[in-house]
From TrEMBL:
GO terms for molecular function: transferase activity. This is Glycosyl transferase. Keywords: Transferase. It comes from Paenibacillus yonginensis. Pfam families: Glycos_transf_2, TPR_8.
């Protein structure tokens, strides 16, 4: 792990894994709080690394301290929940030594019902002898190869605080220094600009990224969707539509793009077209081992709720009711959906949850 001023989260993280690993290596990049004191309760393998605005350099130094056959990496605001602790313990007993890397789900955000709403996969457990390296000063990635196993273990991201300007400042300093950005840097710089509502500059960088033709396909698809979001914020709905459709250049429709297209046609009052795209969003299943960012809402409750709206406006109230019920299955106390339920039960003459013929 690499850490800096993580006294609020580091103990929680280490408590969730300390008995699952044979060695804990912590690289501190300049903490001024109680981080090291807390870490010392779990390990004496604590190393200092002078921060040089380069996450990959720090992570590679951390990897260099490892001595065991496999390396598990985490961030200070990550935890393994009890069910995943058990899965990890089982994996250790059954792991084929020919495996070079194990991917795990990274659950990034949850709704108030505990549903995962944003997740991706990362190579989490890697064979030390392979010497895999981290690449990139910011939004770094671990370059791996060989025999990769996609596990069902999840690492849960549970952040308490975040330096929202840190990454943007790093990119802007590199831009001012005249550095040449890789396609990956162009994409992540655009993301930072979008997050900071610098929409026009974000659009320019997304176009620069896509123009390279060298981006990872999942980043290409995501960039088109984020372009659509930026154009929407600026009130350019036709360009937003064009950007959403551009995702189809790079692969089959994803639930996020389908929901964007459904929303466009819903606002145009073309409800049949909206229904087509929202229905498709509910049917798409991403392949096992999918590494791109997935927004679960776009294939679960959200399209069903929007289908409820569309069918209601088309006067097809039974279908509207059924889709609202499907949405409620994911969010059982959602006030909007409960109001919809009451509305449809009244106009359909439904009693006790049973539709009347």
């Amino acid at each position: 792990m690499i850490v800096r001023n993580e006294e609020d989260t580091i103990g929680r993280c280490l408590s969730s894994v300390y008995d699952l690993v044979e060695e804990i290596n912590i690289v501190d990049t300049g903490s001024t709080d109680r981080t090291k004191e807390i870490v010392s309760r779990y390990t004496d393998r604590i190393y200092d690394f002078v921060w040089i605005q380069d996450f990959a350099a720090a992570r590679n130094y951390a990897f260099s301290q490892a001595t065991k056959p496999y390396i598990l990496w985490l961030d200070a605001d990550d935890v393994l929940q009890e069910a995943d602790r058990k899965k990890f313990a089982e994996l250790k007993q059954t792991l084929d030594p020919s495996i070079d890397s194990v991917t795990m789900k990274y659950d990034l955000a949850f709704d108030e019902y505990g549903n995962v709403i944003s997740s991706l996969r990362r190579n989490r457990l890697v064979k030390r002898a392979n010497g895999f390296k981290w690449i990139g000063p910011v939004h770094e990635y671990l370059e791996v190869g060989g025999h990769i196993y996609d596990s069902d273990i999840s690492v849960t991201h549970s952040s308490l605080h975040h330096d929202s300007d840190r990454n943007l400042n790093i990119y802007e300093a590199r831009e001012q220094a005249g550095e040449d950005f890789s396609p990956r840097d162009l994409y992540y710089f655009a993301n930072e600009l979008l997050d900071h509502k610098k929409y026009e500059k974000a659009i320019a960088y997304y176009h620069r990224f896509l123009a390279t033709g060298l981006g990872w396909v999942e980043d290409n698809i995501a960039a088109c969707g984020k372009l659509a979001d930026a154009y929407t914020h600026l009130g350019h709905k036709d360009k937003a539509l064009e950007s959403t459709l551009r995702t189809l250049q790079y692969g089959s429709p994803r639930p996020e793009a389908c929901c964007r297209l459904g929303y466009y046609f819903l606002n145009e009052q073309d409800y049949r077209s909206a229904v087509f795209w929202y229905e498709l969003a509910t049917q798409i299943r991403l392949p096992a081992g999918h590494l791109g960012l997935a927004h679960a809402a776009c294939s679960t409750w959200l399209p069903h709720l929007q289908l409820c709206v569309c069918y209601d406006r088309l006067g097809e109230h039974k279908l509207a009711y059924r889709h609202n019920e499907q949405a409620l299955a994911y969010r059982p106390t959602d006030k909007r959906m409960l109001q919809n339920k009451s509305y449809f039960e009244t106009i359909l003459g439904i009693s006790g949850g049973q539709e009347q013929e």
